Amino acid sequence: MSDVSYPQTQVEPGALYPPSLSDEIIVDNHPDRIIDLVAPAAYVPHLLRIGHRITTLTITSDPHHLARALAAVAAHSEPTLVKLTLYLWPPPQSLPWHMDWDAEAELALGAITQLILHPAMKFGDRDVELLPRWLNRFPSLRYLEIHSGAASLIQQSHLKKAIAEIYMRNNTAGLIGDIVSFV
């Protein structure tokens, strides 16, 4: 891929990030909009500025840039971004539910209806405690998928129950325990 096209705009990859990493960005282009974007966390803030109609965003790469990438997603004003996939790497302290968040930015994640998590580590007890509270940042969430056996069967049961309780307490009609999928 030599460039990212957006209506009437050509952006050379080297203008946004080092050319050596340009092959890591995958864009599914449509005449009207960029539909799907897969990018390393470090590039997400820059790419969201030009991708006004992204509907699906997959964030990959190292944990050091994840907080900044998620803050950019939260600040992204387009309500078209509805599906977010996160590839999460150790250490556990870098997982998004362990991070401190600006309360106003948290509310902006309300357009996300589908969240897919690919953790590269097993969940600990602290993750089981913090993850349901972190999901409060997604009030429109209707589907949550957690991959790669990150949670034991007991943890899955606890997570489903805690998530259902939080969403029922908040009168959110969407996410109930059976919409949480462990793959």
Give a topology summary.
Blueprint (H helix, E strand, L loop, with lengths): L3 E3 L2 E3 L14 E4 L4 E7 L3 H7 L5 E5 L5 H10 L7 E6 L14 H5 L6 E6 L5 H10 L8 E4 L6 H17 L10 E3 L1
Parallel strand pairs: 4-5, 5-6, 6-7, 7-8, 8-9
Antiparallel strand pairs: 1-2, 3-4
Helix pairs in contact: 4-5
SSE class: alpha/beta
Termini Cα gap: 32 Å
What letter string, H or E per element, gives the SSE order?
EEEEHEHEHEHEHE
- Please compute the radius of gyration using only Cα atoms: 17 Å
Structural shape: globular
Largest sheet report: 7 strands, mixed
**What share of residues are in beta strands?**
15-25%
Mean pLDDT: 76
The number of distinct helices, counting runs of at least 4 residues, comes to 5
State the total count of DSSP E strands. Answer: 9
pLDDT < 50 stretches: 1-23
Side-by-side strand order of the widest sheet: 3-4-5-6-7-8-9
Helicity, in percent?
Answer: 25-40%
Q: Could you explain how this protein is built, in words?
A:
- The protein has 183 residues and is an alpha/beta fold.
- The protein has 5 helices and 9 strands; from the N terminus they run ββββαβαβαβαβαβ.
- It has helices at residues 44-50, 66-75, 103-107, 125-134, 153-169, and strands at residues 4-6, 9-11, 26-29, 34-40, 56-60, 83-88, 114-119, 143-146, 180-182.
- Strands 3-4-5-6-7-8-9 form a 7-stranded mixed sheet, covered by helices on one side. It has a two-stranded antiparallel ribbon with strand order 1-2.
- Helix 2 (66-75) links the parallel strand 5 and strand 6.
- The radius of gyration is 17 Å and the shape is globular.
- The model is unreliable at 1-23 (pLDDT under 50).
